[in-house]
Structure formats: C-alpha cells, structure tokens
Design goal:
- The chain is an alpha/beta fold.
- It is built from 14 helices and twelve strands.
- The strands form three sheets. A five-stranded parallel beta sheet has the order 4-3-5-6-7, sandwiched between helices. A five-stranded parallel beta sheet has the order 9-8-10-11-12, sandwiched between helices.
- Strand 3, helix 3 and strand 4 form a beta-alpha-beta unit.
- The longest helix has 20 residues.
- The structure holds 6-O-phosphono-alpha-D-glucopyranose.
- 6-O-phosphono-alpha-D-glucopyranose binds next to helix 3.
- Its EC number is 2.6.1.16.
Length: about 375
C-alpha cells in the first residue's frame, strides 16, 4: 500500500511524530519482558570475546554511532574507533583479529558504508549491522543483523530511523556490558526499565511542538546557527546542525560546548542564535558557564534542558525548552526531538521543500 501523509503536512513531520510508536516497536524486539533483560538475535560467536569495536556510517547514522561510542565505552568499557565511511578505508585502519565492526545505516545501501563493510569482512572482522531495510545489501552481508523497526522513512532528512538506531545501540551497549561483566543483572533490569520509558519521554518532548514552531520564526532569519552539547549529547548538537543545514539551508555548526572558546566564539554576535543542549548532570554547570560566555557577547541562546530551575538558568535566553527528566542513556533519544522539530519548523517558515531538499538524496549509492 502507498504510504500516506495522513493529516501531516510533510512526511518528515509525520515521521518525527511516529517516533514514540516506532521506538517502542524497535525496543520490543530487543527486550525480554519476562526478566527485563536485553535479548539479541541468535548468532554463533561470543560477544564477550570482542576486544575492540569499529563503527562506520554516514550522515545521521554516523551521529548515532558517535553516541554509541560513548555508551560502549562508558557501560561496557570497550574501546571504540569510529569514522565516516568515506574516510575509513582510505586511511588503511588497523583491524586486528577479534574485532567487531559495526555499520549503521537506514537504507543498508549507502555505497561508502557498504564498501567499508566489505573491507572489514576481508580483514577478518565480525560484521554487525544496524539497518532499517531488512532486505538490503548490508542486512544480507552481516554476521549479526540488528534491525530497526522504524518502517519506511520517506523524508530525505532522517528522523525516526535515527532514534530507532539509538534504541538498538542502547540495548546493544547494555548487552555488551553484561557480557563483559561490567553490568550486573540488577543494573541491566534498571536500564531496561528506563528504556521502556523512552516512548513516554518522546511524547513529552513532542508536546513542545507549538512552542518550537513559534520559536522557529526567531531562528529563520539567521544566516548561521551554532549548536552546543557535551558528552553523549555532543553528537546531538552535530545532528541538530545537520538537520537545519539539510532542510532550511541555513549554515549551522555543532560544537562540543567546551571547545567553543577555541574558535566559534569569535562568530558570536546578536545575529547568531546558539542552541544549547544541556541535560542535567555533572556537566550541567559547565555548560551553563559556556552559555554565559555566549550571552556576554550578545549571543541569543535557546536552552534545551531538564534541569531544576530551568527558568532561572535560562534567564536572559531567547527561549527555554523543558525536557522530561530521563536516564542519561535515554537523553540522546529525547533531545533528538526538539532539534528535529526546530529544523522542521524553520524550514517551513522558509518555505523549502522539506521532504526533498535540494541536492540531497535519500540513499547515496555512489562513492
Ligand atoms: C543520505 C541521507 C541522510 C542519511 C545518510 C546515510 O545523506 O540524506 O539522511 O543519514 O544518507 O544514509 P543511511 O541510509 O546509510 O543511513
């Protein structure tokens, strides 16, 4: 059957709003409800023997991989190497026996990623893929197939495939952590409980749609926009900037909050909005002080956070968007929503072709 937009204006908008449903659908196939543990598909090698993970992907899928790097290192204490697929093969990466190579792709056909997969296979790596199209080349060539259940994604700019990738990668991180003796069964159960809450948290984030649509009018006139984030939310700053570039054609850059003082701060003036992703936690105060450096230079800040006293922290900001309180493992999924919505609404204000932005293709099958 043809896929319809229903009451939505664009496929991208529909896909953003589908996220609670498709993330829940994806998680269901990775969680065993009887004992609240993570369950992966059957395969015949021992994950506890993996010594290193190499992650390769392109575009938005690459940013999902960057988040996974934080998770695999933090929870499973596994060293992770990550690269964009177009760079990977040409630097002749060191691939030692016993390595797991992980490829992330919505389409499963991106030429650079597929070539990197084949290169890793030739070099004796075990191949895992997180892919949305189960009949794709990558799905067929994998040793371990980890499907996302996002359903067909029509909008060229990826949204629901990204959050579903993160859901699978979070489950994989927990599984690897248990296998490597870095996480107890009780901690695993806790984490699974949190993961099960993700769709509700996504709904809470989606409830800010009107607010973000109104804010989009303030961002649309900008020529440049900066996105800041730290730790596992730094990749979300990169993804936010990518979404805005892709569909609104506004130049945007994502930066690690603490790195701003080494360059981008020179750009800050009243004309450059700065979107700050600042989940509460040990790094929150540091991010707030980065934000004050922006404000002191006349920069207009949009603060996206779940921190207590957000109104106070956000005093003098252009706007604040309050996120639901969630486990740090889930924060990247939840923070994806406001950056997607912001890009979407800015593009609508600018009147661009949201679902088919100029010069971009849904799946890039040339190198
Ligand atoms: C294209 C699309 C992006 C996507 C990237 C990777 O550039 O426009 O939205 O993130 O390819 O695609 P993949 O199918 O490998 O995830």
């Amino acid at each position: 059957a043809a896929i319809e937009k229903g009451h939505f204006r664009h496929f991208m908008q529909k896909e953003i709003f589908e996220q609670p449903t498709v993330v829940a659908q994806t998680l269901r196939s990775y969680i065993r409800r009887v004992d609240q543990s993570v369950a992966l598909p059957q395969f015949d090698f021992d994950l506890s023997q993996i010594r290193r993970v190499t992650i390769v992907a392109c575009g938005t899928s690459y940013y999902a991989g960057l988040v996974a790097k934080y998770w695999f290192e933090q929870f499973a204490r596994l060293p992770v190497d990550i690269d964009v697929a177009s760079e990977f093969r040409y630097r002749d990466p060191v691939l030692e026996p016993g390595g797991l190579a992980l490829f992330i792709s919505q389409s499963g056909e991106t030429a650079d990623t597929l070539a990197a997969l084949r290169h890793c296979k030739e070099h004796g790596q075990t191949i895992a893929v997180v892919v949305n199209v189960p009949t794709s080349s990558m799905a067929r060539e994998a040793d371990l197939l980890l499907p996302t259940h996002a359903g067909p994604e029509i909008g060229v700019a990826s949204t629901k495939a990204f959050t579903c990738q993160l859901a699978v990668l979070a489950a994989l991180a927990a599984h690897l952590a248990v296998k490597r003796g870095r996480m107890s069964r009780e901690e695993e159960r806790d984490l699974v409980d949190q993961l099960v809450e993700t769709p509700a948290a996504l709904n809470a984030a989606l409830a800010h749609d009107d607010e973000i649509a109104a804010m989009a009018h303030l961002i649309a006139p900008a020529r440049d926009v900066l996105y800041l984030g730290r730790g596992q939310d730094y990749p979300l700053a990169l993804e936010g900037a990518l979404k805005l570039k892709e569909i609104s054609y506004i130049h945007a850059e994502g930066y690690a909050s603490g790195e701003m003082k080494h360059g981008p701060i020179a750009l800050i003036d009243e004309a450059v909005p700065v979107i700050v992703l600042a989940p509460s936690g040990p790094l929150f105060e540091k991010t707030v002080s980065n934000m004050q450096e922006v404000r002191a230079r006349g920069g207009k800040v949009v603060l996206i956070s779940d921190a207590e006293g957000l109104a106070e922290a956000g005093e003098g900001c252009l706007a604040t968007i309050e996120m639901p309180k969630v486990h740090p493992l889930i924060a990247p999924l939840v923070y994806a929503v406001p950056v997607q919505l912001l890009a979407y609404h800015v593009a609508c204000v600018k009147g661009t072709d949201v679902d088919q932005p100029r010069n971009l293709a849904k799946s890039v099958t040339v190198e």
